Amino acid sequence: LSERLSDVTAVTVDPGALFDLNNFNETIGSLAGGILLPGTDPSQYGLVTLGAGNLRTGGNGTSTLFAGRVNGTGTVTKLVNGTWTLLNTNTFAGAFLISAGTVVMGDSSSGVLASAVPNVTTNVTVASGARLTGDGRIQGNVTINSGATLTPNNPLVPEPLDIDGDLTMLAGSTYIMNIGDQLLYSRMTVS
Predict the structure, then answer these.
(1) Buried residues in 117-136 as b, exposed as e (16+ CB within 10 A)
(2) How many CA within 13 A on the CB side of residue 30?
(3) Percent helix, strand and coil across the chain, each to the nearest 5
(4) Using an 8 Å Cβ cutoff, are 163 and 142 in contact?
(5) What is the structure's pLDDT at 177?
(6) DSSP state, 179?
(7) Cα separation of 127 and 73, whole Å?
(8) How far apart are the first and last CA of the chain?
(9) Is the pLDDT of residue 125 over 90?
(10) 74-122 pLDDT tens trace
(11) Spatial CA neighbour of 121 closest among 158, 89, 152, 167
């Protein structure tokens, strides 16, 4: 059955654990967990299986880091304020909508070379008031709507935000480039 958990329930998927939507829709407060350790077999990370179900996360507004994986044919939507950091490859086939808050694709400060793996392999849409940032990799088209913000990586991080697809910045959207000391600046590649 769809919507079995409270919309503010914090869900943590530990390494080796499975959160299976079994083709149903679910709204949760936050999604965290998984461990990204060098040399760890990716099959041992926490896994969220959507099937054809749709996951909406972020309803409690807290900031979380998710190093597990999300797969299936459904969609993922980031809700409410707060930051959701994705460190692993998420291969769900449905769209990824960032409707509010911030999504960080990769985080080189975590000690992982972020752009070595794609953080999502689908199209990403950023809604008005929401922000996409990071130094990870997106294999899909990215649309930044009016009122939304795109901010590539921190200028102190050597990795760019990589978009393997088209980037559409609609009228009224914002692109913020961070410039640091000694001519360090944020970078992004689009191919």
Answers:
(1) bbbbbbbbbbbeebbbbbbb
(2) 20
(3) 5, 35, 55
(4) yes
(5) 82
(6) B
(7) 21
(8) 41
(9) yes
(10) 999 999 999 999 988 889 999 999 999 999 988 655 544 444 567 888 9
(11) 89
Q: Would strands 137-138 and 161-163 be described as parallel, antiparallel, or unpaired?
A: parallel
Strand order in the sheet with 55-57: 26-27, 55-57, 76-78, 96-98, 124-126, 142-144, 167-169
Q: How far is CA 118 from CA 22, 138, 178, 185, in A?
A: 25, 6, 23, 22
Which among 75, 108, 107, 80 is positioned nearest to 90, based on CA atoms? 75
Do 35 and 15 form a contact (C-beta atoms < 8 A)? yes
Tokens 């752009």 sit on residue: 115
Which of helix, strand or coil describes residue 47?
A: strand
CA distance 73 to 95: 9
Residues whose CB is less than 8 angstroms from the CB of residue 190 and which lie 6 or more positions away in sequence, other chains included: 163, 165, 166, 167
- pTM of the predicted model, to two decimals? 0.89
